[in-house]
Amino acid sequence: MNSPISSRGFDPSQAVANYPRDLVQHYQDVGYWEDRTIAEQFRAVAAAWPDRDAVATADAAITFAELDKWADRVAYGLSETGTPVGSPVILQLTNRIETIVMWYALLKAGLIPVCTLAVHREHELGQISRQVGAVGHVVDGGYGSLDLVQFGQDLAIGHPTLRTLVVVGAHTEVVDGALRFEDLGSGVEAGVARARVDSIQSTIDFTDVAVLQISGGTTGIPKVIPRLHAEYWYNAQSYADAFGFTEQTRNGHGSPVIHNAGVVCAVHGPHSVGGCTVLAPSPEPTGYLRTLRDARATHALIGTSNFRINTHPDFGRTVRGMQGLVLAGATVPSALFDAIDRLGVPAGQLFGMGEGLFSVSRFSDPRLARATTVGNPLSPDDVIEILNVGSEVPVPDGQTGELCTAGPYTLRGYVEAGEANVAAFTSAGLYRTGDMASWVTIDGARYLQIRGRIKDLINRGGEKVNAAEVESLLLRHPAVTDAAVVAMPDPRLGERACAFLTGPGDHVNLDQVRQHLSAIGVAKYKWPERIEWVSQLPRTAVNKIDKKRLRVLASELADGEWNTTRGDSESDSKTGVSQ
Question: Where does the sequence pass through the membrane (predicted)?
Answer without folding.
Answer: none
